[in-house]
Amino acid sequence: MHSDINILADTSNLFYIGGVVRDKILEKESFDIDLTYVGNAIEYAQTIKNAEILKINEPFGTVRVRIDGQETDIASTRSEIYERPGHLPIITQIGCSLKQDVLRRDFTINTLAQNYKTGEIIDYTGGLDDIKAGKIKVLHDKSFIEDPTRILRALKFSVRFGFGLDEHTKMLRDDYLKNINYDMSFKRLKKELIETFNLNLQKAYDEFMDNKIYKLVTQKEISKTGINIQKFITEYDRLIEHSNIWLIYLATISDLANLELTKEEKKIIKDFNSIENLSLNTDYEIYNTFKNLKTETIIIYGILKNESIARHYLNNLKNITISINGADLQRMGIKPSPVYQDCFDYILKQKLANKNLTSEDEISLAKKFLINNN
Ligand code: ATP
């Protein structure tokens, strides 16, 4: 927690807001502490004793301060309108009332404010009851039209907290998904996809597919894989970069063009596309196909093409290496030449067939190979 602002400034108009209040009520740790000032937070920050102003975002009315070495963001209350549904809203007032600020938010569970000074909880939308009932409810009927990323946010919060969607909210979601406006900010959609699927929860994938939420990403019809992706990923957890987990889930959607993948993300998918139609019959073929690929790509292969081949590589082949090297061949009196590589390949093939080969065995196999091939 950050230091006590009560002794440094007048905090009567300062509020914890949104997720942080929700998390306190649920007794869960918050990812970040959001503070809102009813009025102009930038001017307010200058009245906090010993606060160092680190960053000001004038158009948004937000400010980052450092107090006693700790950094805190303070936002001004603001109201917004959506001139272009699906895109960022336009701010209509900085320093509006707390109620107006709260009414621009996504779900009732995210609208609670707690007065910094008194601890009083202000609930304009029935959010407290919805938290207790485990219900995710939008504030008005146009919510998903204005901002379709909220459909993913609803999914994210539902799987994170084990909450359900309120029936009317579910109906609004399903209506929107039947008539999506693809002129939207995919950058924000991608951020929510990443946050949702990096949780590595099968339930998120099941809901995403069963309720056709995937239609936000592609207009194509996609069928769901029967493989338990969460279990697959968890088994090979230590071989995966956690920030890429979402891509494994989303790879079941072949068309991710809208998401502007990074170079690394593109490579994971492209590598899969380049091997998906190869016929892999021997351990040697499997080994050579997978050896330079990221585990993420191999798991995608396992989900979409052949689970047993992917597992066989990861469980039995991945760690096989030959111990013989160029220096060993030189000691046998063989000058460096392309025959080295042929020799290593030959030994690798033998080793894949017989994992117990010792380094002495490798040397005698090399000798045999070189006699026949040099
Ligand atoms: P988390 O624990 O995932 O950080 P959070 O509720 O704090 O959850 P943030 O994405 O940090 O989520 O957003 C902070 C607050 O801003 C939310 O609680 C919500 O009130 C509001 N908010 C965020 N995204 C939207 C959105 N797309 N539409 C409306 N309000 C939003």
Structure write-up:
With 374 residues, this protein is an alpha+beta fold. It has four domains: 1-133, Beta Polymerase, domain 2 (2-Layer Sandwich); 136-260, Orthogonal Bundle (cca-adding enzyme, domain 2); 262-319, no CATH class; 326-372, no CATH class. The protein is built from 18 helices and eleven strands. The N and C termini lie far apart (72 Å). Bound molecules: adenosine-5'-triphosphate (ATP). Residues 18-19, 30-32, 34, 105-106, 110, 147, 149-150, 153 line the site of adenosine-5'-triphosphate.
Order of helices and strands: EHEHEEEEEHEEHEHHEHHHHHHHHHHHH
Which ranges are low-confidence, i.e. pLDDT below 50, for 5 or more consecutive residues? none
Q: What's the CATH topology label of the largest domain?
A: Beta Polymerase, domain 2
The count of domains is: 4
Supply the CATH superfamily name of the largest domain: Beta Polymerase, domain 2
The total of helices stands at 18
Q: For the CA atoms, what is the radius of gyration? A: 28 Å
Structural class: alpha+beta
Report the sheet with the most strands, covering strand number, pairing sense and barrel closure.
7 strands, mixed
Shape type: elongated
Strand-residue proportion: 5-15%
Report the helical percentage.
40-55%
Summarize the structure.
Helix content is 44%, strand content 12%. The protein has 374 residues and is an alpha+beta fold.
List the helices and strands and how they pair.
Layout: E1 14-17, H1 19-25, E2 35-37, H2 41-45, E3 52-57, E4 62-67, E5 70-76, E6 78-81, E7 90-94, H3 98-103, E8 113-115, E9 121-122, H4 127-133, E10 135-136, H5 143-146, H6 149-161, E11 164-165, H7 167-178, H8 186-197, H9 202-210, H10 229-235, H11 245-250, H12 263-275, H13 283-290, H14 295-304, H15 307-317, H16 326-331, H17 339-353, H18 359-373
This protein binds adenosine-5'-triphosphate.
The site of adenosine-5'-triphosphate has 13 residues, from helix 6.
